[in-house]
TrEMBL record:
Pfam families: FA_desaturase (PF00487). The chain crosses the membrane at residues 24-45, 51-73, 183-199. Keywords: Membrane, Transmembrane, Transmembrane helix. Residues 48-297 form the Fatty acid desaturase domain. This is Fatty acid desaturase family protein. The keyword Cell division does not apply. It comes from Ruegeria spongiae. It comes from the Bacteria.
Length: 314
């Protein structure tokens, strides 16, 4: 049973779960439009500051594409299944070297077994709380591209090993680390390179490297880790839907650089996973209005969520 049904009525859930093709299209357009605006900013005023801003904004929108892929995995991006899967695949997943089908299989398992021994995400969250030094090393590897390069090289090597090996492919279908990151890698590469090519044609030849590959290897990896820590790091390993996940409140800067498209309302998402992201703030207010605020695991900022996970430790 959906956890939310134990706390909300069907009449309360139904309007929140309504999907809109128009709003889904706007989200995808907004994400790619923000990327275009970041490029335009640097093109009009090329300097180190606008370069850094473009890398950070585009990296956060790469996370935005991952979030919209996540919406499509829950069939919440568009009302029509074919449109949901087509846009989720070609405009959201493949530009960031991901595959919607593989992600959907993994992610629904995460929802079914949240913070249990069967949760495929448990190895990520069980490391927290950790030390300040450990988190600093992780963030340094992310921001310097070490994490991204290691992941990319690993995808290439594993994909080459799996090429034509049907037994390995079948085995990988049940393993997130392989299926999500390697199984469909060569299908996604042309789309990833296509984005880089378009950027090079719009600007200088190096724009694709600077404004798609570089953000992917650095800022995207960093905000992806921050998001993962905030969502389940240092939460209870239990079946309590109010305590095994965390919602993090986010202001305008956090939404721009770290948490686009209401991804910060993660407790609400786990409550009713098919609610579109734009209705999660309404679900949040509904839960607060029903008096569940004292039970809900919430952090006032991403900094506070990181401190709970160990950032302020020695």
């Amino acid at each position: 049973m959906t956890p939310g049904k134990a706390y909300l009525t069907t009449d309360e859930i139904r309007p929140l779960a309504a999907r809109s093709d128009l709003r889904g299209a706007w989200l995808v357009l907004h994400c790619w439009g923000t990327i275009a605006l970041a490029l335009a900013l640097f093109g009009l005023w090329p300097n180190p500051l606008t370069f850094l801003l473009a890398v950070m904004v585009i990296g956060s929108r790469q996370l935005g594409l991952a979030i919209l892929m996540h919406e499509a995995a829950h069939n919440a991006l568009f009302q029509r299944q074919r449109l949901n899967d087509a846009v989720g695949t070609w405009l959201c997943a493949r530009p960031i070297l991901a595959d919607l089908g593989a992600y959907r299989r993994y992610h629904l398992t995460h929802h079914r077994f949240t913070q249990s021994d069967k949760d495929p995400d448990l190895p990520l969250s069980s490391k927290f709380p950790t030390s300040h030094a450990s988190m600093r090393r992780k963030f340094t590897r992310d921001l310097t591209g070490q994490t991204g390069v290691k992941q990319l090289v690993g995808q290439i090597v594993m994909s080459l090993r799996m090429a034509g090996d049907h037994e390995a492919i079948e085995a990988a279908e049940g393993d997130f680390a392989q299926s999500f990151q390697t199984l469909h890698f060569w299908i996604t590469v042309p789309v990833f390179l296509g984005v880089m090519l378009i950027m090079g044609l719009v600007g200088d030849w190096w724009w694709g490297l600077a404004f798609w590959l570089l953000p992917y290897l650095t800022w995207f990896q960093f905000v992806l880790r921050v998001r993962n820590i905030a969502e389940h790091g240092a939460t209870e390993q239990s079946d309590d839907p109010f305590r095994n996940v965390r919602t993090t409140l986010a202001g305008p800067l956090a939404r721009l650089f770290v948490a686009p498209y209401w991804v910060n309302y993660h407790l609400e998402h786990h409550m009713i996973m098919h609610v579109p992201c734009y209705n999660l703030p309404k679900l949040h207010k509904l839960l607060l209005g029903k008096g569940y605020d004292t039970q809900m695991n919430m952090a006032p900022t991403y900094g506070a969520a990181l401190r709970e996970a160990g950032w302020r430790s020695a």
